[in-house]
Design brief:
By secondary structure, this protein is of the alpha+beta class. 21% of the residues lie in helices and 41% in strands. It has a single domain, classed as Immunoglobulin-like. It is globular.
Amino acid sequence: MAGKSEEEIRAAAERVKQQLDFYEAEAKARGERFERLDEETLLRKLAGDEANTPFISGAAWSSSVPPGGTANFRVFIQNPDAWSYSGNFLYGYLFFGPANLVQSTDLSLTAVDTRFPRYLHRLGVPAGGSADTTFTIVVPAGLAPGVYVANCYLVMFAWYGSGGLADRVAFDMTVL
């Protein structure tokens, strides 16, 4: 939202908060966990003062699942830019491992728990709009009970030039 007034940014933040309130109520009704950006961070990201765009504004997920079961992870994306991002260039990449502890994006991609599958979803998000996608996670049978860390990266690919990491979040899942 570069070039937007503070009033326009606050109005956009209010729309995003209302949307996230709805998604949070849905997630809680399903017994899922829900996390979202705080208002200050949301305002900074919508103003273009922080992070790349588009960005992750919230997430909902199944917090516990038995071995051999499935869990869901739903990620919510905001695009404050005046142009859209198509599914040919924007992807969600989900994997398990302690990647969020590693500062370097390149090195963090090597911190993978190979017992879990990896997931890649094409995403599209309209100009000034939002999108979401749900990953259905297959939990390996025979996996020991415990807490496992997963990561979702919002990645932009480019046919030329450079793509890169737009945003990333981590979440925990308990295997019963």
